[in-house]
Structures are given as C-alpha cells and as structure tokens.
Amino acid sequence: MKACPLQNRKNLIFFLTLFIFFPAINGRNILAENNSRKVVINQADTAEAHRLNVLALSLRKTHPDTAMLLAQKAMKISRQEGDTTGIADVFFTIARIHQARFTFDSARANYHRAEKYYLLTNNFRKLADTYNKIGVTYGIQGNYEAAAENFRKSVQYNEQTNNIVGLGQNYSNLGNVYKYLGNYGKSSEAYLKSVAYARQANDTGQIAASYNHLGILADYQGDYRRALDYYFQAMKLSDIIGDLEQMAAIAGNIGIIYYYQNDFEKALQYQHKQFDFSMQVSDERGMSYAYENIGAIYEKMQKYDSALVNYQRSLDIRVKMTDKKGISYCWYNMADIYFQQGQTQKALEMHLRSLKLREGLGFKLGIAQSCLKIGAAYMKTGKKTEALSCFRRAYNLGEKLGYPEIMEESAKNLSNYYREKHDFQKAYKYLTIFKQMSDSLRDVKNVRKITRMELEYGFNKQQDSIQRVREQEQYKSKIMLKHQRLQKNILIAGLIGILIVVFLISRIYLIRKRADEQKEMLLKEIHHRVKNNLQTISSLLSLQGYSLKDDRVKEAMVESQCRVKSMALIHQALYQHDRLSHIEMEGYFTELVSSLKKAYTSLQAKISTIIRAKDISLDIDVAIPVGMITNELIINAFKHAFAGREQGKITIELKRGVDNGYLLTVADDGVGIPENINPANTGTLGLRLVSLLTRQIKGTLTVRNYQGTVITVTFKDIPKKSG
C-alpha cells in the first residue's frame, strides 16, 4: 500500500510529458486523460485513509493518543474525497478509541455519527456491529435496558445479512444483560443460542466466551459443579486459539471456585494468572476483577489490610471506567470489612451507597446481597424493624431469582429474628427452610471434581497432541508407499505404540478402579455415620418428648422425630446397598411405613397400607425430598383421615410417567380433605412443607377428593453427569 502514492506520481509525470511534447492532442482526449488521472489519485488517497484508519484501530488500547491523531488524519482525507464509507469507518474507529479510554458518552456519540453514514450507504452489517458496540458501552455502565435494546437492533440487521458470527456475539451479550437483570432462564437460552451460531461459523473464540458465561451463570445459581464443567471447556478452547484475554477471565472464575473450597493458595494463584494475562493485553477491566478477587481472598483469610488495599485498587480502575456495577461491588466489599472490624456505622453508610447504585441499575442479585448486609448492620445497631424489612426483601428476591445462597442466609436471619421475638412458629418455619437450603448447597464432591477436571484437561491436551503427530505420520506414509522396508518399519513401530497405549490404558484403568473402590468405601462410611447421627437426633427428640406436658408440643415433637427418621432411612439404604447414588423406593417406603406405625402405635391394627413402587429407584437428591413428602402425607392421613372410624386404608404408589417423569400418589379412603385448600398457605406445617419440597424438586402438586383424599406429586429425577 505504501507504493501506491509513488506509482501515482510516476503516472502524473507521464501525463505531463505527453502534454508538453504532443500539444496537438485534441481537447476531448486531454479531458479523458485528466478524468482518468483524477480517478487514480482518489483511489490512492482512499487507500491511504483506510490504511491510517486500520492502524489507528490497532493502536487504540496501547497508544490511544497516537491512534486518535491517525484517525483524525484519515478523517480529513476521507472528507476531502467525499468518501461516505470512509467517513463512517473513521467515526467508528474514533468511537472504539474512546471506548478503550472508558469515555463511553463520547464513544456513543461517535458510534451514532457512524450510524448515520452507514444508513446512507445501506451497510447493514456495519450497522449491526455499531449497535452491538453501543450496547456494550451501556452494559459496562450498568444501563442494561438500553444495552438490550441496542443488541436487539443488532440482531435484526445481522439476520438480514445472515451474519452468523455477529448473531453469536449478539446473543452472548444479551445473555449477559439478562443475567445481570436476574432473568437466568432467558440468560441461559441466549448463551445456548450464541453457542449454536458460533458452531455454525466455526467461531471457537465465541464458543469459549459463551461457555465461560454459562459457567458464571451456574456459579451465580450456586451450581459450582456445572460452572466448572463450562469453565474448563472454555479454557481448553481459549488455549487452542491463544486468546489471553479470555483465558484471564476464565482463570479468575476458576480461582473463585477454589475460594469457595477454602483453598486460598490455589485461589490466589489463579487470580494472579488472571492479572498477568490481563496485563499482557492491557485489559484494565480484567485487572480490576483480579484485584477485587484477590481482596476477597485476603478478606476470607482475615488479612483485612491487604484486602482493603486490593479493593481500593479495583475501585480506582472502576471509577476511571465509570463502571457503576463494579463500583457498587467495591463499596460492598469494603463495607463488609469495616463491619467485621467493628466500624458498623461506616459499614452501614457504604452499604447504603452501594444499594442505591444497584437499585438504579436494576441489579436484583446485588440488591439482595446488599439487603442482607444492611439488615445485619441494623440488627447490630438495634434497629430491628428496619432489619426485618431488609431480610424479607432479600428472601423474596432470592426465591424469585432461584438463588439458594441468598435464601439460606435470609432464612437464617429471619429465624433468629423471630426467635428473639418469641414467635417460635415462624422461627421454626424459616429454620426448616435454612436447613433445606444448606443441604442443597452442600456438595462433598466439588474438591474431587476440580482435581479430576484438571487432570482430564491435561490428559486431553496431551491426547490432542498425540493425534496431530499420528495424522502427520499417516500423511508421510502415503507419500512413501513404494519404500517397502520403511513401510514395514513404520508398521512395526505403530504396533509397538499400540501395545504401549494398551498397557498404559490398562494401568490407568486398574488405578482408577482401586481409587473408585476406596471412594465407595468412604462414601458408605459417610452414609453410615450420617444415619447414626440422625438416629441419635431422633432419640434425643424422643427423650425430650417424655418430659413434655403439652399434648400439641408432644405431637409436634413426634412429627419432627418422624421427619428425621425418614432421612435416616435414606442413608441406611445407601449404606446397605451397592449403589451409592440411587434408592430403591419400594423397600424404602416399606421401612418408612413401618417406622411411622411404630410412632403412632394406636393405629397399627386399624390402618392397612398398600405400597406399589416396584423397580423404581431415585437419585439421592430427589429421594430425600420425595421421602419427606411421603412421610408428611402419611402422618397427615394418620392424624386426620380416619377420625371417628375403626379402620382405613392408605395407598402409596410411585410409577413412571411421561417424558421420563414420575408420579407419586398417596391416597386414603378417609373423610376427605376440605375443599379449596391451598397446601402452600394452609395452617398445617406438614402440608406447607410438602408444597415447599415439591417446588424444590421442580414438581407439581395436586390435591383432590375421590373416595377419600388423593394427593399426587409429578416430578422428574435429577440426572447426574458422568465423569
């Protein structure tokens, strides 16, 4: 491209020579030559403007001032030539430079100038890119509604031009917006669309980015195992294409999981990896995330001074970027440290500033987190009514968002509040919810999962390398087919290699088999101890019941004892059988009914039970709530269904339904349940617990009267990922 101006000057000299030495050329020919000369010059200047613009774009992050000077020079040339497309491209580049400087208002102003010129030329693909970039600037500043509006405009233009790559980017960005707005269902749907478009376009970088975002989404919902699955897939793809910026983000996210596991050494190691990767590509946003995460690790290690230093470093960058969401997190984190240091008023003021910023952004998860902290500060300062309002708001948001950690913390605080107020019924209600949320968050396999996936990542990387070598060898062997002796040697080498591979695979299989056997023994021992502990709790409840005088309290104690036994039976079944993840439900129901009849001794001779659950087994995560649901429904039938009668019958049936679902039915031939009863709002704790547990397994609860009471729960088993 640099040779173009010189070549044009040579052409000009040639035309001038003709003019001097051949004056007899008629005016028409001279005009044609002059027009031709003008076209050549315009093409050269347009090419020079394009070259300057491309150079400015490449320097926007590392040398923004130089980039701006080059862009202004390109703009001057484009305006002189009246090149509409060139003017639009330069405005677009100037906007990118402002975006790299985090001056987003100026960036958007120039994007809109580029938009006008692209509209004049009907350049729909560039329009789509422009709207996408405008949406990104709004998203960084936390204006998610405006961001979503521009991403949707971009989708429309990309669909018109069938720009598959652009659509992949659009849906990834929309997924981010929905995630920050707390709409996790739409967020997941958008990310999966992004993956689908990226696969069509063979866009490995976008697939990696979407997997990373899916991991963050799973992390937000407390599903750390699924988050790690996505993170390591994303890391592998990013490593293949050498995307350091993406690898920085993923390293930070993996470090957060180690943080959850209290492995602070590895957590810091991954956060420093994120910082180093971000430094290499001059990504200030990535550096701010690394500082924030390092601060969180030091905070958990109770090294508060180091934590505050890193939070302040992150805050300085976020302020420079005008990243409102990031600023709110920095204030939130720093306020938390002040609270732990006993500076309650200072912490409260900073949390309230963070909450106000998050409310302005519509950041629902952040609002819930702030409400929990503000509620704790109010409790400490004696403002308990204000604290109750904050805890309720946090709980409602946690339930709406499906975020178990928020629900767990909120329920614990609400239980403590009502206990202090001597409202034991509400205290017990929220204590029950707290226990359920705690159980759902507990995953003893997370540490093993991390180690296994790291090993798999390294092994898969090695296998990919071996595969590439084999493909090269196969290609060479085809070229040298005439050389029989060499072909024979290659064949022998291949056979030896196969034998070595078979030997290694056999060794790995035996090692893993021994490890699995040890894990099974350990898990059996865990289930045995859990069962013993639950039985101990049941015995303590029974002993406590003997000292009680109030019949209603004694009855509640018996019901609590039955609930504990229903869970103990699950762990007993796991300990006694070879399968450590699934429960044979027919045997479990038989043991459960026998246990309940012993608790309600006066009913043994009067009530018969029929159990139908042959060849049905459930995953432990579903079996426990299903067992508790059945426990509550049988107790309810014992207590209420046969009033004034000498005998009765209860039927428990669990069978497979449509679409891999299950139907649990507990029916009795008693007096029937009152019409229009709502289990979620009834005054009976048992039915409310049934409703809550049904929601936990994402099931549907129906109650009807037909020759007694028939209660049906429709649900699906939770699939377990293998490997």
Write the SSE topology.
Layout: H1 3-21, H2 27-58, H3 64-81, H4 84-100, H5 104-120, H6 124-140, H7 144-160, H8 164-180, H9 184-200, H10 204-220, H11 224-241, H12 244-260, H13 264-280, H14 284-300, H15 304-321, H16 324-340, H17 344-361, H18 364-380, H19 384-401, H20 404-420, H21 424-441, H22 446-479, H23 484-546, H24 551-576, E1 582-584, H25 585-599, E2 607-612, E3 617-619, H26 620-641, E4 648-656, E5 661-668, H27 685-696, E6 700-705, E7 709-716
Question: How is this structure best summarized?
Answer:
The protein is mainly alpha-helical and 723 residues long. It is 76% helix and 6% strand. Strand 4 (648-656) and strand 5 form a beta hairpin.
Written account of the structure:
76% of the residues lie in helices and 6% in strands. The protein has 723 residues and is mainly α. The strands form 2 sheets. Strands 2-4-5-7-6 form a 5-stranded mixed β-sheet, with helices on one face. The relative contact order is 0.03. The N terminus and C terminus are likely disordered.
